[in-house]
Amino acid sequence: MQKIKIFRYMPGREAYWQEYALNADPDDMVLSLLNRLRETQDSTLAFRSSCRSAVCGSCAMMINDKPSLACQTRVKSLKGDCITLAPLTGMKVIKDLIVDMEPFWNNFKKIMPWLEEAANSKDMVITNKVSDLQEEICACILCAACFAACPEASVQRSYLGPHALMEGYRFLQDPRDSAAEKRLEVLAGPEGAWGCNGAFACIGACPWKVSPINYVAKIRTGAMKVKLGRMKAEDCCEYKGNQGGKSE
């Protein structure tokens, strides 16, 4: 028998923890247990799920206090006699294990996750380096596990979050895009890369082992290069303007 303790919440009522027990195999996924619980013991239990293949990201939740995918987590991988399930942290709970994903998606929209096609984009050749980068970042399934793990995102609602910063960097490196300057202004702002406190919590949270913080560092580096380039250009213009001139 496997013990499971689940966070329960219904709007208008106080939240509480409810304990269940059911037969489980060590190779069972947590999502399978949840489906079995809802089918055989408690039809009111609310949670999200869809693909059951770690692709859609909808079954992300706190499993033993760690943001994880229920469809990817086996019973035998969890320590202790009891499995604890709770909604993702840092987001408003709608019911039981279901959270309001609107802040997550709103922050994602801020980085303009689409290409603003450059005039000559159809004639461009995408290098292997750019292609490999695209493939690596596109492994992100936008499950919000990194967002829930990030301490900055939980206290600063306006902070873009690891997912948005990483996806934004992907567009910055795409030569077909013409909105790099506008996009960098958002990504490198106080609510973007410079808002990251370097907790590195997003690294272990990603179910596909993508490391968002690596791209946060690259955004900072790129922003500094742009800033230094502008400063040099301004200094050069000032020097040329004063060359041969007479001070008043």
Verbal overview:
This protein is an alpha+beta fold and 248 residues long. The chain has nine helices and seven strands. It has helices spanning 30-40, 102-110, 128-137, 145-149, 151-155, 162-172, 180-187, 201-205, 212-242; strands spanning 2-8, 16-22, 60-63, 66-69, 82-86, 93-95, 98-99. α6 (162-172) packs antiparallel against α7.
Relative strand content: 5-15%
The number of helical segments is 9
Rg computed from alpha carbons, rounded to a whole number of angstroms? 23 Å
Spans of at least 5 consecutive residues whose pLDDT stays below 50 are: none
The main pleated sheet reads as: 5 strands, mixed
| Overall geometric form | elongated
Strand tally, please? 7
Oligomer: single chain
Could you say which structural class the secondary elements and strand pairing correspond to?
A: alpha+beta
Average of pLDDT: 90
The string of secondary-structure elements, in order, is: EEHEEEEEHHHHHHHH
Q: How far apart are the termini?
A: 89 Å
What is the topology, as strand order, of the major beta sheet? 2-1-5-3-4
Secondary structure: helix percent? 25-40%
Task: Quickly describe the structure.
With 248 residues, this protein is of the alpha+beta class. The chain has helices spanning 30-40, 102-110, 128-137, 145-149, 151-155, 162-172, 180-187, 201-205, 212-242, and strands at 2-8, 16-22, 60-63, 66-69, 82-86, 93-95, 98-99.
Which features characterize this protein?
9 helices, alpha+beta, 38% helix, single chain, 7 strands, 248 residues, five-stranded mixed sheet, two-stranded antiparallel sheet
